[in-house]
UniProtKB/TrEMBL annotation, chain A:
PANTHER family: PROTEASOME MATURATION PROTEIN, PROTEASOME MATURATION PROTEIN UMP1. Pfam families: UMP1. The lineage of its organism: Eukaryota, Viridiplantae, Streptophyta, Embryophyta, Tracheophyta. It comes from Salvia splendens (Scarlet sage). The keyword Ribosomal protein does not apply. This is Proteasome maturation protein. Signal peptide: none annotated. InterPro entries: Ump1. GO terms for biological process: proteasome assembly. GO terms for cellular component: cytoplasm; nucleus. Belongs to the POMP/UMP1 family. Keywords: Chaperone.
From TrEMBL, chain B:
It comes from Salvia splendens (Scarlet sage). It comes from the Eukaryota. One of its GO terms (molecular function) is threonine-type endopeptidase activity. The active site is at T40. The keyword Transcription does not apply. Belongs to the peptidase T1B family. Component of the proteasome complex. The keyword Cell membrane does not apply. One of its GO terms (cellular component) is nucleus. It catalyses: Cleavage of peptide bonds with very broad specificity. This is Proteasome subunit beta.
Length: 139, 273
């Protein structure tokens, strides 16, 4: 079962005042078939690469790479106005050399409904005190 | 790991926010807005020294000609060019993006780009979008391994051919190629054959028209012959003539070269702390 489409039973990602009324239908029915395909494409590709590496070099090598990746992903700024630049992580995973539509088209900071991340709410999410995305998707 | 994904910034790219609204509007009877297509004729062939690409220059929007002289031969690398058919925005965006990726790759490897690199990048991109990016391309170029010509379909399948045609006028152009192509053509014969095939598409297909663009790529050199042939000239001429009331006077003819603001120092020290 696609994890993004199941309804979690414990704890809902809602805070009526911050995110509005939570509609169940919008979670299950995807607006466009490409959305789920694009989301899972990167994950499946990474998993396949890991399998190939473990078949070629043994199981320890991809595990070490995964540990390095997790260590590098921990170096972040606190949530707020300045976004974290994951320089080490991007150099390690090779994302720094990739270039796609998301790099120059539809920059979310230039959208008309841009809302800067609320620092306190973002910190609460990171500490596990609140559920839900740090920034709501609508104004 | 989930913490990282939550604090990563929102990425740009395609946004699916309005898909549900559009679906609802179409169910209520609103016709979708038409977009600019290049119902087109694009061709390519391999001759003895390299590759020749050709394209017509009409862009249509439903039954209307939206652009009478558009450019369908896009630059990918100094030795690789790509003709695009399908939705005009899709072909331009995809070729621009892959051209930037090729440039990054050239900086990384320090070598001339190969045509198969461009082919793989385009093909994997189009496949991952499952055909929704409707760009049918004819990719041609000359690299260290020789001249190559490929076709790429919107869903991501590719083909390697000595001569290729795509677009709504592809059958008309293919008829010319099938009857007259042979291996080992010279440059002039090749250009003449490509121009003939495009003219056949221009005159026999509604979606193609206006002028003929040709691009000749050989090892180390490329010539982009924009508007190589103009078989559809505008014949309207005003009877009264055009009168320009104010005479323009040339006051000064002097060219001042701009001063270089950046100085490149060879062998300078790296940034000192």
């Amino acid at each position: 079962m696609d994890p993004a489409k199941t309804i979690p039973l414990e704890g809902r990602t809602d805070d009526l005042l911050r995110f509005g009324i939570h509609g169940v239908k919008s979670d299950i029915i995807e607006p466009h078939p490409l959305q789920s395909a694009r989301r899972s494409a990167k994950q499946t590709q990474d998993e396949m690469k890991k399998k190939i590496l473990s078949n070629t070099y043994g199981a320890a090598f991809p595990m070490k790479m995964e540990m390095d990746r997790q260590i590098l992903s921990k170096f972040q700024r606190p949530p707020g106005a300045v976004p974290s630049s994951f320089v080490g992580l991007e150099a390690f995973t090779g994302t720094m050399e990739e270039f796609g539509f998301e790099d120059y088209l539809n920059d979310p900071r230039e959208s008309e409904s841009y809302r800067p991340v609320d620092m306190h709410h973002g910190m609460e999410v990171r500490l596990g005190l609140s559920k839900g995305p740090p920034c709501p998707s609508f104004m | 790991m989930s913490r990282f994904e939550e604090s990563a910034p929102a990425r740009g790219g395609f946004s699916y926010d309005l898909c549900k609204r559009n679906e609802m509007l179409m169910q209520k009877g609103l016709k979708p807005s038409s977009y600019l297509k290049t119902g087109t004729t694009i061709v390519g062939l391999v001759f003895q020294d390299g590759v020749i690409l050709g394209a017509d220059t009409r862009a249509t929007e439903g039954p209307i000609v939206a652009d009478k002289n558009c450019e369908k031969i896009h630059y990918m690398a100094p030795n690789i060019y790509c003709c695009g058919a399908g939705t005009a925005a899709d072909t331009e965006a995809v070729t621009d993006m892959v051209s930037s990726q090729l440039k990054l790759h050239r900086f990384h490897t320090g070598r001339e780009s190969r045509v198969v690199t461009a082919l793989t990048l385009l093909k994997s991109h189009l496949f991952s979008y499952q055909g929704h990016v409707s760009a049918a391309l004819v990719l041609g170029g000359v690299d260290v391994t020789g001249p190559h010509l490929h076709t790429i379909y919107p869903h991501g399948s590719t083909d390697t051919l000595p001569f290729a045609t795509m677009g709504s006028g592809s059958l008309a152009a293919m008829a010319i190629f099938e009857s007259k192509y042979r291996e080992g053509l010279t440059r002039d014969e090749g250009v003449k054959l490509v121009a003939e095939a495009i003219c056949s598409g221009i005159f026999n297909d509604l979606g193609s028209g206006s002028n003929v663009d040709v691009c000749v790529i050989t090892k180390g050199k490329r010539e982009y012959l924009r508007n190589y042939m103009l078989p559809n000239p505008r014949t309207y001429v005003s009877e009264k003539g055009y009168s320009f009331s104010k005479k323009t006077e040339v006051l000064l003819t002097k060219i001042t070269p701009l001063r270089e603001l950046v100085e490149v120092i060879e062998g300078g020290d790296a940034m000192e702390e």
